[in-house]
Amino acid sequence: MARTTGSHSDITGPKVREAALRLFAQNGFAAVSMRAIASEVGVQAGALYNYTPDKQTLLFNLLCTHMEQLLAAFTDDTSLAPVDRLRRFVDFHIRFHADRPDEVFISYMELRNLSPENFSAVEALRRQYEDRLQAILQSGADAGEFDIADTKIATLAVIAMLTGVNTWFRVGGRLSLDQVIAQYWDMVRKSVMSG
Amino acid sequence: MARTTGSHSDITGPKVREAALRLFAQNGFAAVSMRAIASEVGVQAGALYNYTPDKQTLLFNLLCTHMEQLLAAFTDDTSLAPVDRLRRFVDFHIRFHADRPDEVFISYMELRNLSPENFSAVEALRRQYEDRLQAILQSGADAGEFDIADTKIATLAVIAMLTGVNTWFRVGGRLSLDQVIAQYWDMVRKSVMSG
DNA sequence: GTCTATAGAGAGATAGAC
DNA sequence: GTCTATCTCTCTATAGAC
C-alpha cells in the first residue's frame, strides 16, 4: 500500500519542475498558484518549498536549464562551408524547439516575470546562442558567399522566423517536420545568399 | 480649481484604456490589478467599472481594437505586380507595428488570458490579416514570379520574421527604421523569389 | 461619475506536528 | 519530506453615499 507521506525527494523534485513547466506554459506564470502546482504533483502546497525557495526561483531554474541545454546541444563545425553550417543550424533549431514547445513558450512569454538579476542571466545565455548564428552568417559574408547588409539584424530575423514554427506546428498536422524544415531552409538559404 | 469628483467620462474612458494598455504590456495582464490601473488614471478602483464591465472585457477591447485598426490600415492593390504588392506589405507591416509596440506586445502575449469566445474573435481577425499576405504570395506563385513550396507556411514565416522587429527595434538606436525595412525587404524578397 | 467601504475569494510563504 | 493550519496580504467586483 502506497504511503501518502514520507521521503520522495528524488521523484518529487522532477515532478515539481515538470508540473510547473506545463502549468506555466498553459496558463502563464502569474496565473498559476503554488497550490495548483502542488495539486498537479500530488502534494500539499507547503511541501513545494522543500524544492524551491520561492515561485520566482522555480521559474528562473526552468528558463536557465532550457537555455543551457540549448547551448549544450548545438555544436557548430567551423570546418564546414558557411552554407552547410547554416543548414545545420536551421535543422537543429527547428528540431530542438519543436521537441520542447513548453520550454520555448515560457522562455519567450515569462521573461518579464523574472527579477532583474535573473532576467540578465537568462538574456546572457540567449545572447550566446544568437552569437553562434551571427558567427556563421559573418563567415559567409566574409567569404562572399552571403549577401547580408547587417549580420546582427539577419541573425534576429532568421531566429524569429525559425522560432515562429512553434506557434503553429503540431505533430500529426498537414506537414511533417521534415517538410517544414525543408521549406524553411529553402527560404533562409535564399534570403542570405548572394545573387 | 480642478474638481476631484464629478463627470469626466469623455476623458476618463480613453485614459483607462491607455493606462491598461501600458501596464498590461509592461507587467502582464495577470500581474496588473484594477487598483494599479485606477492609480495610473487618477481615480479609485471602483470608478473603472463605469467604463468596463470587468477586467477581461478591458483586455478584449484593447486587442480587438488593435486588430481592427490593423485591418483597416492595410489596403492591398491587386493591380500591382506581386513583387510590388509584397514590398508594400513588408513596408506597411514593419511601420505599423513599430508605431504600436505595446499593442503588438499584448496581442501576442495575452491571447491566452482571453476567454474562449473572445480568443476566437481575435483569432479570426488575425487570420484575416494573414490571408491578405497569403493572397499576395499565391498570386506571385501562380504567376511564376515566386518560388514557394507552401504559401501558408511562407505567410507565417514572413510574418514571424517581420513582427520580430518589435522585440529589438528602438527609435534612436543604431539603425533607422528605413534601414531596417530595407534589409528586411531584401531578405523577404530573396526568400520567395524564383531562381 | 466618483468616492469610501467592504464582501468574499485566493494568493505566497511559514510553523510545527508527525 | 509531507502534512495541516494559518498569517498576512492582495485581488475583483459590488453597494450605497454624494
UniProtKB/TrEMBL annotation, chains A, B:
Residues 33-52 bind DNA. InterPro entries: Homeodomain-like_sf, HTH-type_TetR-like_transc_reg, HTH_TetR, KstR2_TetR_C, Tet_transcr_reg_TetR-rel_C_sf. Keywords: DNA-binding, Transcription, Transcription regulation. SUPFAM superfamilies: Homeodomain-like, Tetracyclin repressor-like, C-terminal domain. Pfam families: TetR_C_24, TetR_N. Residues 10-70 form the HTH tetR-type domain. Transmembrane segments: none annotated. The keyword DNA-binding applies. GO terms for molecular function: DNA-binding transcription factor activity; transcription cis-regulatory region binding. It comes from Sulfitobacter marinus. PANTHER family: HTH-TYPE TRANSCRIPTIONAL REGULATOR BETI, HTH-TYPE TRANSCRIPTIONAL REGULATOR RUTR. It comes from the Bacteria. This is Transcriptional regulator, TetR family.
